[in-house]
Inverse folding.
């Protein structure tokens, strides 16, 4: 029996002040979209250079409604990476368009920008880059490519809140930027997300899309001119988000310390490929993801079980999604995107969250060494 408590791969940090503020919302009688949502939108906008920010009930809704805002639909193609949570491609299907995958870059594990132009067709309307594990895609090259081909960019920044690109915070520049506030993210509202928009006109159009297409009229009536979703956030969730926003920079700083300790304490002789080092500190260390040695890739389940037996939780983020039945039925097969397939088959997500102690990192590293020894 393991005497130490179970260490999950992630755990949200919710302080007592935030818990009390959630209680205040519940007692107020206004628990759906209201003043707390307005306050969180304003605070996020201020953080991101004054750009309009609109909340939704998930990062997935943010992505889908961003595509609808761009007018993307049947007959259109959207380029993205197969190495992401399946929502990244599902939203393209949801609007009736076709997701076109481009392989990952072996060094960054993000979409290979060198391969995008070969995937373009006259039907390509947008790009959805993904900042895997919070390490940003090269924004300079990304937007130069988008400008050359007159493409919209919907940044899937679900994992990269608080990350930067050459001193500029992700979301403070660019085209449409989607964040997720899911429970396992660096900044959480339990569930939720937001879209960062370019101007007030886009923001007003997005407001209609997120709530049934409704426009409120001065006389108390309303008008509905087009389709809309039901994707608004609650004030209960927004209260959590406001509490998180006060702490997120401290969270990121602690994550960087923990990541550095992983690199320092890791046994290089085990044969893992460690995550990109990120010397310019662009990323937010949303996840720490070494790749199993290829000799152990087929035994990833055994490795996860061996870690669990030592009280350590391990995740898998993410399998290459084009190998799911949904996309195989659309013509994809093993071998289409070999880099993403290799990374997806070997990745393991190890514990990394702000409440971890330095000793927890040491414990994980020791457990990895023991697990590998047991498997060989």
């Amino acid at each position: 029996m393991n005497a130490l408590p179970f260490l999950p791969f992630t755990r949200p940090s919710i302080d007592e002040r935030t818990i009390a503020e959630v209680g205040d919302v519940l007692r107020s009688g206004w628990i759906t979209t209201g003043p707390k949502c307005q306050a969180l939108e304003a605070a996020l906008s201020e953080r991101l250079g004054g750009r309009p920010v609109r909340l939704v009930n998930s990062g997935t809704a943010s992505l889908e409604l961003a595509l609808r805002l761009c007018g993307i639909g049947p007959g259109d193609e959207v380029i993205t990476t197969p190495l992401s949570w399946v929502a990244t491609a599902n939203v393209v299907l949801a609007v009736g368009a076709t997701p076109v995958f481009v392989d990952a870059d072996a060094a960054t594990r993000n979409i290979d920008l060198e391969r995008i132009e070969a995937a373009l067709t006259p039907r390509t309307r947008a790009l959805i880059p993904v900042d895997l594990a919070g390490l940003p895609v090269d924004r300079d090259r990304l937007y130069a490519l988008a400008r050359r081909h007159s493409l919209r960019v919907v940044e899937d920044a679900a994992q990269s809140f608080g990350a930067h690109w050459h001193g500029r915070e992700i979301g403070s520049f660019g085209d449409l930027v989607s964040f997720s506030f899911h429970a396992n993210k660096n900044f959480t509202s339990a569930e939720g997300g937001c879209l960062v928009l370019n101007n007030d006109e886009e923001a007003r159009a997005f407001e209609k899309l997120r709530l049934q297409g409704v426009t409120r009229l001065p006389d108390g009536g309303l008008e509905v001119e087009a389709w809309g979703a039901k994707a608004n956030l609650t004030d209960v969730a927004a209260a959590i988000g406001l509490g998180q926003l006060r702490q997120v920079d401290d969270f990121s700083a602690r994550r960087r310390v923990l990541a550095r300790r992983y690199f320092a304490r890791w046994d290089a002789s085990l044969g893992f490929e460690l995550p990109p080092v990120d010397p310019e500190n662009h990323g937010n260390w949303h996840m720490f993801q070494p790749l199993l040695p290829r000799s152990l890739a087929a035994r990833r389940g055994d490795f996860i079980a061996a870690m669990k037996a030592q009280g350590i939780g391990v995740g898998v983020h993410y399998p290459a999604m084009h190998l799911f039945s949904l996309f195989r039925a659309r013509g994809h097969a093993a071998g289409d995107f070999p880099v993403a397939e290799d990374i997806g088959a070997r990745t393991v997500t190890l514990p990394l969250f702000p409440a971890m102690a330095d000793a927890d990192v040491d414990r994980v590293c020791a457990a990895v060494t023991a697990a590998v020894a047991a498997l060989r």
Q: What stands out?
A: The mean pLDDT is 97.
